[in-house]
Amino acid sequence: MHESWPMLAAAVSIALMNGPLGALAVWRRMAFFGDALAHAALLGVALALAVEAPLMAGVLIIAGLVALGLSVLSSPLLPNDTLLGVLAHGALGFGLIAAALLLPGSMELEHLLLGDITAITPLQAGVIVVGSGLVLAGLAVIWRPLLAVTVSEEIAIAEGRRPKIWQLAHTLLLAVALALAIRLTGVLLFTSLLIIPAATARLLARSPEQMAAHAAGLALLSALAGFAASRVWPLPPAPAMVAAAFVLFALFHLPVWRRG
Length: 260
Fold this sequence. Notes:
Blueprint: H1 5-27, H2 31-50, H3 55-73, H4 80-102, H5 107-114, H6 122-151, H7 153-158, H8 163-204, H9 208-232, H10 237-259
Helix pairs in contact: 1-6, 1-8, 1-9, 2-3, 2-4, 2-8, 3-4, 3-8, 5-8, 6-8, 8-9, 8-10, 9-10
């Protein structure tokens, strides 16, 4: 168990961080944004590994540029979903090219696509724990103004708020969260642990704060269940966590589907 604590600490921290972040992403109808960031992160992963730079730094730089690009380039002539698709797939294309040219046959890159929690060191776990706490603190600061902007941009503007600033702050926090979670979730599974618990929590909550708390609890339960399953059976931890999150989603929605 002593050898497992860095992995468990990292999984718990990321789950508690992703829950409230995902709740706001669902409220803002930004589920696709998580995929866009994750696809773009592949370029950051390839570049970081190629120059032997810290992995989180490479992911954070590229994901941050995508977040800034979305804020700057968004316009009525180019809707957010279209812009996201362009940025995500463009970055994915360049990421695959960089991986092919700079990292031929790299097994580490393959692990980073699906996550490799077993490779997390105590130092990396400490960075993830502290970083997740800072992300949650930042989210607490922007929660009220961002929620007001999400409910009604027109009213928020009338009250003197600047929607783009708070929306950019949220997207940058998502970029930081991806950089922290990349070793656990990989590029392909980050959005799953961001959105599925929040989608389940939306069914249970009566307020945004309740939704954030429920999402954190469900993400934590999914992480613990997936982690435990990976210790009992030869399962990859991150996919097991995603599967656990989906099972919870199905169980809570089954009565609704039956009534419907």
